[in-house]
Amino acid sequence: MSQGVPVPQHEQRQITDEQFHDATLIWNYHQMGHEQRPCSAAIGLGSHDLGVATTAVDLYRAGLFPVLVFSGGNSPTTRARFPRGEAVHYREHALNLGVPDEAILVEPKAANTGQNITFSRELLAEAGIAVESLLLISKPYMERRSYATCRKLWPEVEVVCASEPLELDDYIKSIGDEKLVVDMLVGDLQRVIEYPKLGFAVEQEVPGDVYDAYERLLGAGFDSRLIST
Length: 229
Fold this sequence. Notes:
Blueprint: H1 9-12, H2 17-30, E1 41-45, H3 51-61, E2 68-71, H4 86-96, E3 104-107, H5 113-126, E4 133-138, H6 143-153, E5 158-163, H7 168-175, H8 178-198, H9 208-219
Parallel strand pairs: 1-2, 1-4, 2-3, 4-5
Protein name: YdcF family protein
Domain DUF218: 52-156
InterPro entries: Cell_Envelope_Assoc, DUF218, Rossmann-like_a/b/a_fold
């Protein structure tokens, strides 16, 4: 190839075009496609992704909620990046971007999505904030699982999901590891499928083409983020 001619994106990938297509099906399924609208409060779900906090700031500035809970302690995958805890670092990021301190509540103990919802609900109640509708802000591929979890644990509240507006290619670039991203997509879909059986979430219909893509990626070894069932 001549110098100065960019390599097409599909040639730069370490995964095959077919695997990228399957991952894209799952990526799109994980996103709920909710129309953003004003809600009583928001929860920014802690993770390795600081984009959750940035997106929360953008939505706060847009006037979509008056109070924001950042929820999350530490996990093996976030301890190095956020040594003081996910929620604490999210809060610091939001403050640096101009969100007033009085608009932020911190829930620093949650270790999973169920605890994110449960502990944040308790914190909002303690603060005297009535919640009729809730904006859940998560990683892009975690929208559906967070929605299903909240519908199970807080069924009386109306749930709207949001995440950083990224395509799969852009998210892969932000993480820098194609295999890891696909592993995470597959792992979250496994949780969407299995968690209702464990009482952790409401059931979500999985379209046939999405499930077939999931099976192909599992067979190809994208399995580092699976739970034991």
